[in-house]
Amino acid sequence: MLVLTRKVGEGIAIGDDVKIVVMQIKGKQVRLGIKAAPTTTVHREEIYQKILDENRAASRPDPVNVGQAQGILGSDTRPAGQAPLRKYLKPPKGPGSE
User: Which residue range is the domain that position 47 belongs to?
Assistant: First the structure.
């Protein structure tokens, strides 16, 4: 981890798109100003952690929804690794195709 000492009004640059400036120091709190490209997301660490937690929770399958989906689509009880069952439709018969 890089550790720097900065005074009020001084800053650091991260790449070409991010600049962080010390705006105010009051007791144990430091107020920072962050200039970044609009495409760069900037979050406080605790907010970013909540976003990650929510994304992980949303990506987990919901057993209730999985059960409902199986009921709608039908249960697939094939052994793991077996190729999926495929249903092939016969092409429509045209004139003279018998």
Answer: 11-69
Average pLDDT score over residue span 41-70: 85
What ranges make up the beta strands (E) of 1-98?
11-14, 18-26, 29-36
**Three-state SS for 52?**
helix
**Threshold 0.85, pTM exceeds:** no
Q: Output phi, psi for 36, to 5 deg.
A: -150, 155
Yes or no: say if 30 and 20 are a contact pair by the CB < 8 Å rule. no
Q: How far apart are CA 12 and CA 4, in angstroms?
A: 9
- Give the chain's domain count: 1
